[in-house]
Amino acid sequence: MTIYQEITGNQVLMSGVIGWIVAQVLKTIIDIALNRSFNPERLTGSGGMPSSHSSTVCALTTASAYCYGFGSFEFAISFLFAMVVMYDAIGVRQETGKQAKVLNSLRVLKIF
Q1: What are 50-103's pLDDT values in tens digits?
Q2: Cα separation of 102 and 93, whole Å?
Q3: Nearest 5°: phi and psi at 62?
Q4: Host H or E run for residue 59
Q5: How far apart are CA 47 and CA 102, in angstroms?
Q6: At what angle do helices 11-35 and 52-68 cross, to 10 degrees?
Q7: What pLDDT does 104 receive?
Q8: Reduced to 3 states, what is the DSSP secondary structure of residue 30?
Q9: What is the pLDDT of residue 50?
Q10: How far is CA 79 from CA 49, 52, 67, 69, 85, in A?
C-alpha cells in the first residue's frame, strides 16, 4: 500500500480535512453574500466564522468516536484536543472583540 493510499484511507484524518474544507468554503460563501465580491483569501485564511479550527477538531472527534468508540484512547485524545482548541478559539475571539472596542473608541477620540 502506498503512502497516498494510507493517508486517503485514514477516515479520521480525511474527516478532519473535509471539516476544514467545508468551513473554508462556507466562510467564502458567507463573505461573498455579505460583500458581493470574491476574496480568495477567505478560502485559505484564518479568522471569521465558521471556525475552521473548531470544525476540524469536531470532525476528528466525531470520526474517532465513530471508528474507535467512545471508550477508546483515540476518542479521549481527540476530545481533549478539541476542548483545548475550542476553548482557546473562544478566548481569542473575546479578546479580539475587546481590543476592537478599545481601538474604535480611540478612533472616535481621534487619538489615532
Answers
A1: 888 899 999 999 999 999 999 999 999 999 999 999 888 887 767 777 777 877
A2: 14
A3: -65, -45
A4: helix 52-68
A5: 20
A6: 150
A7: 78
A8: helix
A9: 81
A10: 21, 16, 14, 12, 10
| Portion of the chain with pLDDT greater than 90, in percent | 54
* Residue 112, pLDDT score: 58
Grid cell 478566548 is found at: 91
DSSP SS3 for 82: helix
Side chain identity at 20, as an amino acid letter? W
DSSP three-state, residue 112: coil
For residues 63 and 20, is the Cβ–Cβ distance under 8 A? no
Q: What is the rounded CA–CA span in Å between residue 83 and residue 21?
A: 20
> What number is the average pLDDT over the span 27-55?
85
Q: Which residue in 26, 81, 25, 30 sits closest to 58, CA to CA?
A: 81
d(CA 75, CA 79): 6
